Amino acid sequence: MGSDILKLHAGVLVSMAGMQITKQSGRDMLVCRKCAAEFPEGRATKDGWHYECPECGEAEGIGDGLRRV
Ligand SMILES: [Zn+2]
C-alpha cells in the first residue's frame, strides 16, 4: 500500500522534472532591475516557477524584479 503511494509520487516528480527541462531550454534572456545583470531564464529559476536574480538574489519574479530582454 505504501509502495503504491511512493510510485505515484515518483511519477509526479518525473513529470515535473520534464517540465523544468523544457522551460530551462528556452533561450529567453532576463535582466535584473536591481543589479542590471543579464542571464538566461533557466539560470533564474530552480523549479520553473519561482524566478530570482542569480547575481544579487534580491529581484524576484518576471515582470516584477526581472524583465525579459
Ligand atoms: Zn540582480
Structure commentary:
This protein has one domain. With 69 residues, the chain is α+β, with helices and mostly antiparallel strands. The structure holds zinc ion. Zinc ion binds next to loops.
Task: Give the distance, in angstroms, between the N- and C-terminal Cα atoms.
Answer: 50 Å
Helix content: 25-40%
Arithmetic mean pLDDT: 82
Major pleated sheet: 3 strands, antiparallel
What is the beta-strand fraction? 5-15%
User: Which structural class do the helices and strands define?
Assistant: alpha+beta
Strand order of the largest sheet: 2-1-3
User: Number of DSSP strands?
Assistant: 3
What low-confidence regions span 5 or more consecutive residues with pLDDT below 50? none
How many separate domains make up the residues?
A: 1
Give the overall shape: elongated
Query: What radius of gyration results from the CA coordinates?
Result: 15 Å
Helix and strand sequence: HEEE
Question: What is the number of helices?
Answer: 1
Could you list some keywords that capture this structure?
binds zinc ion; 1 helix; alpha+beta; elongated; 3-stranded antiparallel sheet
Topology:
Blueprint: H1 2-24, E1 29-32, E2 38-40, E3 66-68
Antiparallel strand pairs: 1-2, 1-3
How is this structure best summarized?
The protein has 69 residues and is an alpha+beta fold. It contains 1 helix and 3 strands.
